[in-house]
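for the recovery benchmark. tokens below, seq after
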């Protein structure tokens, strides 16, 4: 498969893949990372010329700007491709991809295909219907005030505490990964301690944890993905009403879910090109490698299930066992969707993640691969506009979501920061869209890409 020569500025550098990413590279602590280059969005900010088409409509001469396939493992290197031949289309189809997004400014158009914005709006409506029809309402959770809200306990202090928990967990996880790579014994008790702190912090204030976790500065050589999966699983498990032991076990599994990659050959893990079939098969062994690696440590069953089953799919299309839904544990089913959600919504080198609302839409759209009931619960847990999302209001103002209400998914609490028409910053103002006053006057009309507006969410939330 030939790549567009313009789509990657440095073919010798660390690549970005889909959910089965080779992101677990583990440089020695002393090795400086390469100079960070500008991540490229998989889909450019302008949306009108981005259209979604079924694979059956794909023709040579079209330009794929998003394979719409973040859930699956496959050897393609980039999320963009100028299609040259029917052979390439057959290869894409062979990996189970049934629809793609095309950039009609860079390739042949399909006149009647829906635009990206239309797809996002339709998915949002479907999500709302599905969640309200099928999801079981959860009991009221712990007090979870918005960060920075005057008179409430969150604000800078909660952000600081959350950051402390996350940073310590990141350092411990980094050490565990390094030890695993070197074949040394790994410090599970240290991770278990971090898991308890993460869990307590999520219960105390999940908004602060989410903001810190999602918005902190990243580089390609830390283990943000595993950390995020651990934190998200703690939050999801708590939301589902699991007891603390189960929550801790599932979160620990999240931190360790890809530890098997530490023993995958470095030349495959960091290969800057498309993997061969053999290399790809070798990459998939990271699941069994992970299970074997932690087997001496007597981990709780749910931790092992997360490690062993995070690539299983509800329709039986996953690996290594290819078990269908009923044969996958709940912890494994939770891990599968959390793993993919974080992978597609996280920035990496050369790859800008989807905005969180769009990533949530993709999870919903791909739910045949996931437990549909859990997908609905996950949407309720994080919201259709997850915390930290940039949204456009009816008044043409842009705002950041700072707290979501599980029962009013499209009316979170937001911080207004920018006027889209005037293209100017506004004095920050927090409004609760679920309050009766604002229900009559304001609403969210869609989400926005912060990069397209040159808006630094972290700066506005002091994360
Ligand atoms: Fe994995």
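predicted aa per position
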């Amino acid at each position: 498969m030939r790549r567009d020569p313009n789509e990657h500025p440095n073919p010798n550098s660390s690549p970005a893949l889909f959910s089965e990413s080779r992101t677990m590279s583990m440089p020695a602590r002393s090795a400086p990372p390469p100079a960070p280059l500008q991540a490229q969005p998989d889909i450019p900010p302008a949306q009108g010329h981005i259209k979604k088409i079924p694979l059956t409509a794909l023709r040579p001469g079209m330009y794929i700007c998003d394979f719409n396939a973040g859930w699956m493992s496959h050897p393609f290197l980039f999320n963009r491709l100028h299609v040259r031949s029917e052979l390439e289309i057959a290869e894409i189809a062979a990996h189970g991809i049934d629809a793609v997004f095309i950039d009609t400014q860079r390739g042949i158009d399909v006149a009647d295909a829906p635009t990206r914005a239309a797809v996002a709006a339709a998915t949002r409506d479907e999500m709302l219907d599905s969640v309200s029809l099928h999801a079981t309402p959860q009991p009221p959770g712990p007090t979870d005030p918005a960060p920075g809200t005057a008179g409430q306990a969150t604000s800078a202090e909660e952000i600081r505490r959350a950051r402390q928990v996350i940073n310590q967990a990141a350092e411990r996880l980094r050490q565990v990964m390094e030890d695993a790579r070197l074949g040394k014994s790994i410090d599970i008790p240290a991770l278990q301690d971090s898991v308890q702190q993460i869990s307590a912090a999520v219960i105390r204030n999940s908004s602060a944890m989410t903001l810190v976790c999602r918005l902190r500065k990243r580089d390609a050589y830390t283990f943000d993905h595993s950390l995020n999966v651990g934190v998200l699983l703690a939050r999801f498990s708590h939301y589902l009403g699991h007891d603390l032991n189960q929550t801790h076990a599932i979160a620990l599994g999240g931190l360790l879910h890809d530890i098997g990659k530490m023993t995958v050959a470095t030349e495959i893990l960091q290969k800057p090109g498309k993997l061969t079939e053999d290399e790809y098969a070798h990459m998939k062994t990271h699941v069994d490698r992970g299970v074997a690696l932690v087997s001496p440590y007597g981990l709780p069953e749910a931790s092992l299930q997360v490690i062993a089953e995070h690539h299983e799919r509800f329709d039986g299309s996953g690996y290594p066992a290819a078990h269908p839904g009923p044969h996958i544990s709940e912890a494994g089913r939770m891990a599968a969707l959390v793993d993919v959600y974080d992978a597609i919504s996280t920035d990496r080198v050369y790859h800008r993640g989807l905005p969180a609302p769009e990533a949530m839409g993709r999870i919903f759209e791909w739910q045949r691969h996931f437990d549909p009931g859990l997908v609905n619960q996950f949407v309720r847990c994080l919201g259709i506009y997850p915390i930290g999302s940039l949204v456009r209001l009816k008044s043409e103002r842009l705002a950041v979501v700072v707290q979501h209400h599980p029962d009013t998914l499209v009316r979170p609490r937001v911080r207004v920061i920018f006027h889209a028409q005037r293209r100017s910053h506004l004095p920050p103002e927090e409004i609760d869209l679920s309050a009766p006053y604002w229900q009559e006057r304001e609403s969210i009309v869609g989400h926005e890409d912060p990069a397209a507006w040159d808006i630094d969410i972290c700066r506005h939330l002091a994360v």
